[in-house]
Specification:
This protein is an alpha/beta fold and 667 residues long. It has four domains: 134 residues, no CATH class; 100 residues, Beta-Lactamase, CATH 3.30.450.20; 170 residues, Alpha-Beta Plaits (2-Layer Sandwich); 231 residues, TIM Barrel. Helix content is 47%, strand content 21%. The chain has 22 helices and 24 strands. The strands form five sheets. An eight-stranded mixed barrel has the order 16-17-19-20-21-22-23-24, surrounded by four helices. Helix 12 links the parallel strand 14 and strand 15. Helix 9 runs antiparallel to helix 10 and helix 15 runs parallel beside helix 17. The longest helix has 39 residues. The chain starts with a strand and ends in a 12-residue tail after the last strand. The relative contact order is 0.05. The N terminus is likely disordered.
Length: 667
């Protein structure tokens, strides 16, 4: 029995076009077998008639005529039933392959229906595959352009429209030069086959004339004997921007915008290697700000960052165009000066020092002078390595600070044997721990006297480090490093234990009060107070003999924590003192609210106290405020009789400094 059915030829994405197409109607009562039967019947009838004609003695012409009629009828039947449906089915296949679609409405026999079902299955599979492929192409972020061997555009995806601004109809049939400029380097429009397999950069052309950078990669495919090229295009302007940003982040300091330590060390290594091969004299300037810590602590991190940015700008403007300036970290800068001898490097360093010493940093209504210390390390054929050169410059800078700050110092030949073993963090960690474990630290003492009578009231404990080479290092040479390495509280514990031991040894003699300096890190560790209380109880030392000095900068980090720590010390019975008073903007607040017994006026007001009316006015106001709050005052760094006399006139209670006595090491 015939089976009725409908077959839609064409992909779903072209449904509208398929519906608009005029249907091709094919009607038949049989398939190939039915047509064959018709033809067979005609042949049989024709044969019978021919035989009958011979028997009946019909005329041969009549027989031939009847045979022709039967054969023609059989042919027309086959043509109508078989050939024409097959022809239309073939046309539908071609239309499907070309992307168009037709609809076949037909009544088929079992044989013809089997053929149509096979075609329908193939069509559905091809349609689904084409739909998936088109969906992928339309949703990919890259532009995909299919061209022939002449560069004529055959197909594009949606990303191509977005990237170049053209509609599909404006691109199909046009040459690829519409999208890629002919002047693009490494892109030969006459040799498209050479594009295959290599990623190239080209100049893209947007609709309206805009140009931009493209990355292109091409693959080849062959279909029906014809070679096609699929070109993948993506804009690389954004990628270039990302790469530039990554490079900037990797090479630049985020605060100042100068080169960072990593980049600087790589360049320093190249300079040292070049200096070892050829005659080229260079120098490394290691620049460390003198007053940055106070600015950062008193005015806040934001002001500190702005100060670093301004200082970086000042140094950059002063440096020569070919020299390399970098921020190494914290308040440390480095400058590579090319093609200079030692004398020229020294002159350059001093010019930078003088420039910063005169530079005022303004914050709201405040003005701060920052100054700096600079160490200079010459770079020549005898330079051993970049690490040693950097260590030499850093050492020279520390010596400049030790010499009074706001100075420059050239690395001396005698110091050339210093290596990373004396400067690296790992080495310093070992040295400091070794000093604590093997008692290489030494307690020096400096007396504090009554400013009027000159009688000794107490003594400040000052720490020294006895190096293995028998040299003695001052606190400025190792305490900042201990703070950076997180060892400052451990060092404080060592000092506290040995100071209590010293007081215990003095029992029975004239009792002498001692003052110990505490670092910022110690204030965050309340167990230090427990350690003090325990050791005083075990040794029987009077807690009143032990005083602790804390700087304003240490308190600013967390005033609540500092207040609790100082209160606990006073609860034990120890004295507390506020050090470096007068530098911070909040000194009156601290004097009024912190539990301290006395204050030490910052040494910067002592240097010109006898000659400076401004310093005298500031110191006088501090003394009056302290006395009004019941605190005693100490003037430190009193280095001449004039300063001592001025301190007495201003009502300062106690004095300390070289005029009184220098720090003394134990015998």
């Amino acid at each position: 029995m015939p089976v009725k059915g409908t077959v839609a030829v064409g992909p779903p994405i072209q449904k509208d076009r398929a519906q608009k197409a005029a249907p091709v109607l094919v009607r038949s009562h049989s398939s190939a077998s039915l047509a064959a039967r018709y033809l067979g019947v005609g042949v049989v009838i024709s044969s019978v008639m021919v035989a009958a004609a011979w028997v009946a003695d019909f005329a041969p012409v009549t027989v031939a005529f009847i045979s022709v009629i039967l054969l023609v009828g059989g042919y027309l039947t086959v043509d109508h039933v078989v050939r024409r449906p097959l022809q239309r089915l073939t046309e539908a296949l071609k239309a499907e392959n070309a992307g168009g679609g037709k609809t076949l409405q037909s009544e088929f026999s079992d044989e013809m229906r089997s053929l149509v079902d096979s075609f329908d299955h193939i069509r559905l599979e091809a349609t689904a595959h084409r739909y998936r492929l088109q969906n992928v192409l339309d949703n990919t972020s890259e532009s995909v352009v299919t061209i022939d061997k002449q560069g004529v555009i055959l197909a594009v995806n949606r990303a191509t429209e977005k990237l170049f601004g053209y509609e599909v109809r404006e691109l199909i049939g046009k040459r690829i030069e519409l999208l890629i400029a002919r002047r693009s380097a490494n892109v030969d429009m006459n040799r498209i086959s050479d594009w295959v397999g290599q990623e190239r950069e080209a100049n893209g052309c947007r609709k309206g004339g805009g140009h931009f950078s493209l990355a292109m990669k091409t693959s080849a495919l062959t279909a029906e004997g014809e070679t096609r090229y699929v070109v993948f295009l993506r804009e690389v302007g954004e990628r270039h921007a990302v790469m530039e940003n990554l490079k900037r982040v990797a090479e630049r300091d985020p605060v100042t915008g100068l080169h960072n330590r990593s980049y600087f060390q790589e360049e320093l290594e190249r300079v040292v290697e070049r200096a070892q091969r050829v005659t080229q004299h260079c120098a490394l300037l290691y620049i460390d700000l003198d007053n940055f810590k106070n600015v950062n602590d008193k005015l806040g991190p934001a002001a500190g960052d702005r100060l670093l940015t301004e200082v970086g700008g000042v140094l950059f403007k002063r440096a020569r165009k070919g020299d390399l300036l970098a921020r190494l970290g914290g308040d440390e800068f480095a400058l590579l000066v090319y093609d200079v001898d030692t004398a020229q490097a020294a002159v350059a360093a001093d010019s930078f020092r003088a420039l910063l010493s005169e530079y005022p940093f303004r914050h709201q209504t405040q003005r701060v002078y920052v100054a700096c210390s600079i160490g200079v390390a010459p770079i020549g054929k005898d330079a051993e390595s970049s690490a040693i050169v950097l260590a030499q410059a850093e050492t020279a800078c520390r010596l400049a600070k030790r010499g009074g700050r706001n100075r420059t110092r050239i690395h001396l030949v005698a110091e050339q044997n210093k290596s990373d073993e004396t400067t690296s963090d790992a080495a310093w960690t070992r040295r400091l721990r070794d000093a604590m474990e093997n008692n290489r630290f030494v307690l020096a003492t400096q007396p504090i006297v009554n400013a009027r009578s000159g009688e000794v009231d107490s003594q400040e404990i000052l720490l020294r480090l006895c190096d293995q080479g028998e040299s003695v290092l001052a606190p400025d040479d190792f305490l900042p490093i201990a703070e950076r390495l997180g060892l400052a509280a451990d060092v404080d514990r060592w000092v506290i234990l040995h100071t209590i031991q010293l007081l215990a040894q003095q029992r029975g003699q004239a009792s002498m009060r001692c003052n110990v300096n505490l670092s910022r890190q110690s204030l965050s560790q309340p167990d230090i107070c427990d350690l003090i209380a325990t050791r005083l109880r075990v040794t029987g030392v009077d807690p009143a003999l032990l005083g602790f000095e804390v700087t304003e900068s240490a308190i600013v980090a967390d005033i609540g924590m500092a207040e609790a720590f100082l209160t606990k010390l006073r609860g034990i019975g120890c004295r507390t003192l506020l050090d470096n008073v007068g530098v911070g903007l909040s000194s009156p607040f601290y004097l009024r609210h912190l539990p301290v017994d006395g204050v030490k006026i910052d040494l910067r007001y002592m240097h010109d106290l006898s000659a400076s009316p401004v310093d005298q006015a500031i110191v006088g106001s501090i003394v009056q405020l302290a006395h009004a709050l019941g605190r005693y005052t100490i003037a430190e760094s009193v280095e001449n009789p004039e300063t001592l006399a001025a301190a007495r006139e201003l009502g300062i209670d106690f004095a300390q400094g070289f005029q009184i006595a220098r720090p003394a090491l134990p015998n």
